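Are you able to produce any protein sequence you like plus the matching backbone structure tokens because I've never seen that pairing?
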Amino acid sequence: DPRQLQQPQRGAHPEGADVSALDHLLGEHATIAPGQGLFLAETWRLPPKLCAFTSELFYEDRLVSRRECQIQALTGPTPFAGAGLFLVPVPHAGNTSAAPEEVAAAERVVAALLVPGVAWTDRQGASHPLTPADLLLIAPYNAQVAALTRAFRAAGRELAVGTVDRFQGQERPVVLYSLTSSSALDAPRGLAFLLDLHRLNVATSRAQCVVIVLASPALFEAECRTPAEMRLANGACRLRELGVRVEV
């Protein structure tokens, strides 16, 4: 899937030589044209609301959710009941590759999820109590991954925590994505890394029910200087626009 992360590469090549044959064929398009090949238009993972976000941003509105995925959702006494995209605003300043405020917010979110009575429904219609094994915690930087891991281990919780790259190809009912940097200027590798559309696609398309994004509000106020930066900011702003805001 050229809209997700490529495999790490080493070496120096002339500009354009690293483009795959499929990317070369696609050109400026995100998906393959009907006369060029076959586009796999159904997702077996994403419920409709998450699929709509993913399809609009990354697949030219061509991706649809299979009918059985429509029943995938969280139920019970949690502010994250239902299915779709949630946004937890976490104000902070000066954080680059680690944000203790988002670690603390992640702990509160997990506590609000792992309460008695909260369950998730799979695409066969079976209901399962939500457990720590049903959660993925994703962060863009190793420093934030380490901070999240330490915090949850200290609290006696063993959760799957890692970078976007680690979890490509995996799935869980619930995904928490900590964007970490306080603002575009604080992002240590710039917007091109933090808000990269491939990374955003992978992080938000792991979920079978719910994606919960933790982010500093200032991160959505980037001053864009190029069309490429505008496209990156557009993805983040669309996330903010569609996400259900929850205070924890």
User: Anything to note?
Assistant: The chain has a mean pLDDT of 90.
